[in-house]
Every structure is written in structure tokens, then in C-alpha cells.
Amino acid sequence: MSEQHPVNEQSKDRSLENYRVEPGQNLTTDEGHPLSNTDDSLKAGGRGPTLLEDFHFQQKLSAFDRERIPERVVHARGAGAHGYFEPYESMAEFTKAKFLADPAVKTPVFVRFSTVGGSRGSADAVRDVRGFSVKFYTEDGNYDIVGNNLPVFFIQDAIKFPDIIHAVKPEPDNEMPQASTAHPSFWDFISLVPESMHMIMWLLSDRTLPRNFSTMQGFGVHTFRWVNKEGKSRFVKYHWKPLAGVHSNVFDEAQKIAGKDPDFQRRTLWESIEKGIYPEYELGVQIVEEEDEHKFDFDILDSTKIIPEELVPVRPIGKMVLNRNPDNFFAETEQVAYQPSNVVPGIDFSNDPLLQGRLMSYHDSQLHRLGSPNFVHLPINRPVCPFSNNNQDGRMQMDIKTSRVNYSPNSLGGNLPAPVAPEDGGFTTYPERVEGHKIRERSPSFSDHFSQATLFWNSLSNGEKDRLVEASHFELGKVKNKEVQERMIDRFNHVDHELAKRVAIGLGLPAPTAPATENHGRSSAALSQEHTTKTAKGRHVAILAADGVDGAQLATLKHALSAMHISADIVSKLGGTIATADGGDSIEVDKTFLTTASVLYDAVYVPGGAKSIEALKAHGEALTFIHEAFKHFKPIAGSGEGVDLLMQADLKGIDSAQVNGKMSAQLGVIASRDVSEMGAFATAFIDAIKEHRFWTRPVPGTASVE
Ligand code: HDD
């Protein structure tokens, strides 16, 4: 019989507890020798050479010399968090995976979000795919969903992975550019590999500029299998939907964030958990009966395809909450080792050739970067259930196995550890029948590369389309090779003729005269971010103020924001405190115009107070702050004399006559000179914050405004 090992939300935290180390009282060597001096090396005389016998110096330096391990060959830059997953209802009808069987059981998880192309020290906010990896510590061992924030991939077969990654990474001669796809070798490859076109449409869209990790979707990408107790198998695709909605930066903003705060997404994740505003995601599945495998006009084993939600709805099955920051970045976030091959009974693979290759590559990658098969002994990777087998020795073996028996079968050790029979829960591979010739060939069912790229394009709002076209002008504008640019225009012409013409115009190249493929006209509402959840929880507002600010207005707004779990920083010219107009308590300044920037906030508020507004008007940075927020489509609010600062900023499309009357709300700019209705003003501002961005604003320099 298999043993039962109940798991709860605390199981992983408790297992990590055994490894946490507090600083000790005494400074010692690694072997515990007390040390009296760590500031001077042992020398032959005060000005003499250092002596070889200085064991403390040797150990300190050689430990330091070996601090770095190879960074991940992709997804090197990342941030992690602990949390839990709880199912809404039992999924036992579909899978025998125990962690999905009981809504009362919270399974601990460790999640790592990442960018793909940049190195470990690169900026967070760059245009890139984001990794979305989840390790579930279940009673049947670790289960990893190693996904991305896009539902499809560049290539169909894992043997092309080194090629796409070589093409996307900095070019080999000069190692440029860092964390960017905007370079010739990437687009050369893409223009020659048409299966990448669907992914390219997603790559050029707002999806690759997520505002935060908490505002992006996650996808398992491949089709997987679920198998129930009766041995019935179904195909499954995974979707993570953020409860905070799916929201993005604009490109200009993302580029500025990368300079102002390269750690922006890592920091926001960390700080929101510290504040108790926990990122939450709903897990959903699309389930396809085995007999329906061939009923679609694409192959469900092809990772460049989605299953449109109109064809197979996403069924929400549970929720994940990230509620604890790691104690140590290296020990947890860097050493965590995800592997798509980590599955539990009830979950199995499909024959997707991209997935099949991944089943080998991740283990190999962990062996290389962590240095030994014993990486599973590292605290973050250890399962929360017992594990036992006859693997032995190797570098950094952590366990002291006490049995003389290390083989199977055996009689000297009672034939332990013994295999677990399938009926008692032992893993069995789904006995799918397969036959075929050994061939290096792509299935003909994988050959339509454009229909779903067109579906994606058709599903975008006009603003999303404008920004996608702009992204293509930026990316291909950096490719000073006409042949590659022309090949890409031809590829776009297979997706949509208008799109191809618009790309060509921006590059200054001849536009195609007729479509290469007629647009099929189909769309899917789920593909546009415009239809996402609207909530203000977790947003971050800048309040611009100086000495003489109206304390009552400020207090009302701050109170209303915090009631909605929106945090706010007082931003002023100098640090320290500012005095309120009514002589009340002085107010702590959180950031100065030098230590922060408009791009780091989701919205801006300017409270009244004549003296405060005069000071802000005299300080150019306050106006820049508002201009940038406006340019990036963010909600902006001013009350009392605060309206004067908004007027001085001369925001395009905002009717000043209307603003000077009672409260007005135009294109996400909320203004009210009348401060008798601060409650209604706060509500209007919070409603605007829920919208996240006001895309219809006429912002000069964007594709929609000439
Ligand atoms: Fe991969 C890391 C996601 C295809 C080979 N991949 C890695 C990570 C994520 C993904 C999120 C970071 C894991 C972490 O946080 O530690 N990869 C994907 C997705 C893919 C995909 C969603 C397509 C559906 N990957 C893919 C292929 C191969 C790899 C086809 C190779 C055949 N991926 C790797 C790797 C990495 C990796 C080289 C680098 C570090 C690591 O595994 O742990 O093995």
C-alpha cells in the first residue's frame, strides 16, 4: 500500500524551516573555528607578503571566487514567491491528481516569473515574453507547470530551440543588444520560419509589456493529458488568469522604467506581498475528449496554436495566492529547478514535439547549472513528501542513507523501497497506442502558419492594432537589412493585407498591392486585453504635493484609496516632511522627483492648497510628471487649486472651460475645483484607476494621432 502524506498550506514552509540559518554570535570559519580578525590578512611583517598558511583568508576568498553559478541559458532574469493553490471543486472525474481532488486542501507552491532573453542583471520592463513557472509541492511529489504569459510558442519542434534562442540572444560578435528582439539576427530567423508568425503577433502586442507579474496571464502552452481513476484520458490546456486583470505598459513607458527602476517588476511583486496585497490567479482548463482530438482545423499537438475559447471554454478550477517572499534569493529563486517532466499520477504528456524535447532539456539544464543530480536535495526543490530510491552518491550528496542495500530487487533489505502498485497510486504512463515509421518530418497537420495569426490580429481593438504596428516599426526599423524587412512584410501580408501595408509604410518600403492570403474575418474576444477584469486593488498612485497642501483633501483621498487597497506615495521636491495649509500634522514625503518617476505609478493626484500648487508650478518636474502620465494614458486627478496645475500642463483633448466648472471627468482626467464633494471626486478617480488606461486619449506621437 502507498503511504498517505497529508499536505497543507504550511508543508513547504515547515520543510524549509529545517534549513534556515540565523547569524550566529561568534564569527567562525566554515568549520567553526572562532576568528579574532577578518580585516587583515596574515603577513610576514606589516608591509610584507601574505602567508600561504592563512587558512581564513584562503577560505574567505575561495568561497567568494565560487559564488556564481551559470545563469539559466534562457529565463535568466526572474523573481520568485511562495504561496498556495486551492481547487474550487474536486476534479476527480477527470484526473486522479490528488492535489486537484479536495477543495479543503491547500497545496504549497513556489512560483518564478522571468523574462526570456536578457541576462540575470537585465532590466525587468523590456519587451519580452514572461516565464510563468509553478511548482506544486503535492503529497505525490512535485508537479511543475513551466509556462509563459503567451499561449503559443515560436517553433513546433524542440530541435529548433537552440536556433531560435541563438537568434534572439545578443549577437555573437559584439554581444548586443541586451534583452531585446530588435536586431537583425532575430528577424532574419523569424522571416525564414513562418511557423513563428502567430507567436510574433503576440510578441509585437501589448502582451510582452506586462505592467506587473500580477497583471499578466499564464499558459501551459502545450496540450497535456489528464487521466482519471478508471484510466480514461482527456487532453488539457492550462490557463492562469490574474484576478487583477491583464494590463500592460506602453512601450515608451517600459523603456523609461527599464532605466528608472530596472527591478520594477521584481520590486512590485516583493512590495505588494509585503503590503499584504497578494497576487492572485485563477487556474482554468480547457478539456478536450480524446475522441475529439481531430475535430479542429489545427492540430492540438502543435504549440503554435491555441484552442479558441469559443470552441472550448476555459473552466475555472482553482485559485493560486502568492503570499510569502523568499528568505534568500539565491537559495530559493536561483536554485529552484523546474522541469516539465515533473508530473504526478493523473497527469501525463501529449506527443507535442515541443513538449517531448522539453522533457529532456530541463533536467539536463539543471545538471549543468546546479552541478549534480543531487540538486533535488536543495531545500527549495525537495518534495514535501518522503522520497526514497536507490540513486546514490554524486557531488554534494546531502542524505546519509543507512541501509547496506542500494539495488532492486533485494532480499537483504526486505525489498525496500518497493514499487507502488498502480491501484495503490504508483505512477503509470497512459498506455497510448503509437506506431509509425522512423522519420524526420513535420506532420502535414502542422502546416497552417497564418490562420491563427490572423485570428489574433482581427481580435484586437484599434488601439491594440496601432501599438502592434508601432512595435513592428521599432523592431524592424532596427534591422538595417532590406531583404529581411521585405520578407517580413510578405509574412505580414499572409496575416492581413492592411497590416502589411502599414508595416511597409513605417519602414519606407513599397507596400504589397494585393493580399497574399485573404483574411478569414474570424475573431475571438478572449484575445484582446480590452475585455479584461477591471479592478483598482493593488494599484499605486503618486500624490504631488509641497508645503501648504490642503490637508483635508489629501486625507480624504488617501483614506478612500487605502480602503480600496490602492497604495499612495507623497512625491515632493525635497525629502523630509511638508506642512499642511491648516497647520495640522506635517506629512512625511515618501519620494522626491529625483528618487522616483511618473512611469513607476499607475495614476497621479494633485491635491489643492494655493502655496503647494505655486511651488509645484515653479518646479518643472511636477509638470513633466503629469505630462508623462497623460502620454501613457493614466488616470490623473486634481482637486481645488490642484486643477490649476493640470491646466498649466495643457492636456490635449481636455476642455478647460468644462474643467473650470463643477467636477469633470474627461478621458481619465478628473478635475474638481469644488471641494465640497470630495467623496464623489474620490469615487470618480477610483473608477478611472480601475480602467487602468484611457486609450482613446489623443496622445501626439502615437500611431492614431498624426
Ligand atoms: Fe523553456 C527555462 C518556459 C520551450 C528549454 N522555459 C524555462 C523557463 C520557463 C520556460 C518559464 C524558466 C524556468 C524557471 O523559472 O526556472 N520553455 C518555456 C515554454 C516553452 C519552452 C512555455 C514552450 C512552450 N524550453 C522550451 C524548449 C526547450 C526549453 C522547446 C528545449 C528543448 N527552458 C529550457 C531550458 C531552461 C528553460 C534550457 C533554461 C533554464 C532551465 O530550463 O531551467 O532547459
UniProtKB/TrEMBL annotation:
Superkingdom per UniProt: Bacteria
E.C. numbers: 1.11.1.6
Biased composition (Polar residues): 25-39
Domain Catalase core: 28-416
Active-site annotation: 75, 148
Residues the record lists as binding heme: 72, 112, 161, 358, 362, 369
Basic and acidic residues: bias regions: 10-20
Cofactor(s) needed by this chain: heme
GO biological process, one term: response to oxidative stress
UniProt catalytic activity: 2 H2O2 = O2 + 2 H2O
CDD domains tied to this protein: GATase1_catalase
Keywords: Heme, Hydrogen peroxide, Iron, Metal-binding, Oxidoreductase, Peroxidase
One Pfam short name: Catalase-rel
MF terms (GO), sorted A to Z: catalase activity; heme binding; metal ion binding
Gene3D superfamilies: 1.20.1370.20, 3.40.50.880, Catalase core domain (2.40.180.10)
Region (Disordered): 1-49, 511-533
GO cellular component, one term: cytosol
Purpose: Decomposes hydrogen peroxide into water and oxygen; serves to protect cells from the toxic effects of hydrogen peroxide.
Family: Belongs to the catalase family. HPII subfamily.
PANTHER family in alphabetical order: CATALASE, CATALASE-B
Identification of the protein by name: Catalase
Organism taxonomic ancestry: Bacteria, Bacillati, Cyanobacteriota, Cyanophyceae, Gomontiellales
